[in-house]
Amino acid sequence: MRIDELGDDVREGLIAKRKAGERIRRLAEGQGLNEDTLGAWFRRKGVGVEVDVSSAAAVSDAGLTDEMAELQVRHDKQLQGIQAKARRFQSLYQASIKASSFQEEVIRNLVNSVDALDVLPMKDIPLTAGKAHGEHSSIAHVSDIHNGEKVDFEAMGGISEYNMDIFRHRVGYWVKTLLRLIDLRRQSLDIRTLHIFADGDWISGLIHDELLKTNQVNVLDQTVTTAYIMAWAIAQISRHFE
User: Does residue 110 lie in a domain region?
Assistant: First the structure.
């Protein structure tokens, strides 16, 4: 006889007897089933002897030897651990699906509500054949770099991120790009000086209440770190000017 041919009440009775400690062989013989098949069915159902793992006496009362009781307890503990991991992985999977759905919803709303601008045509920077007369100066404007602020990648749905490491990389990129553009202009202009206009919001500060929690460091550390990094940047740039 196959297990699926048994009635619901019979199958529930088998589960109850197994939990109570009845041996699989005796249960299989009572229903004319294969012992291995019935054992595999119990494992798929997560059915084991319900015993107090701290008390060997309870297992012995279920009709098992001490050795069999120890094996059964070990099996049940492993099963509980596997079931706990399965629930944890299921929770992580659901959280991943939720985060992915949130990101897709944000992107969909942006696509549906924001009108795309026309592609800007490429324009070459005009360069004269010879250098213009006289000395010239260049201007660099720096503002709103917000060092110390942290924009969390997960909180933004994977769309954006900002932190002090990104700030340092951006300063390095700014130095390289500025010098590259100046060298390009120097092909037609005698540029000897550079004026750097330092506007506001170089640090994250405390202008909003939530920054007390989201800032990576306090205001003093923000100020010192920003001063040090920007001083380094200006020192690198200054070597290329009078």
Answer: no
* Same domain for 68 and 148: no
Tokens 């924009």 belong to 151
**Residue 161, domain member (yes or no):** yes
Parent domain of 149: 135-238
pLDDT-derived band at 55, boundaries 50, 70, 90: very low
Q: Is 49 exposed, middle or buried (0-12, 13-18, 19+ CB in 10 A)?
A: buried
Of 58, 87, 116, the residue that ends a domain is 87
Hey, what are 234's tokens? 């200006």
Sequence-ordered alpha helix ranges (H) in 34-163 = 35-44, 56-61, 66-113
Q: 143 and 78 in one domain? A: no
Distances (CA, A) of 38 to 64, 83, 237: 18, 20, 79
Cβ atoms of 35 and 24 closer than 8 Å:
yes
Q: Which residue has the tokens 């019935």?
A: 38
* pTM: predicted TM-score of the whole model, two decimal places: 0.51
Q: Label each residue of 3-32 as H, E or C.
A: HHHCCHHHHHHHHHHHHCCCCHHHHHHHHC
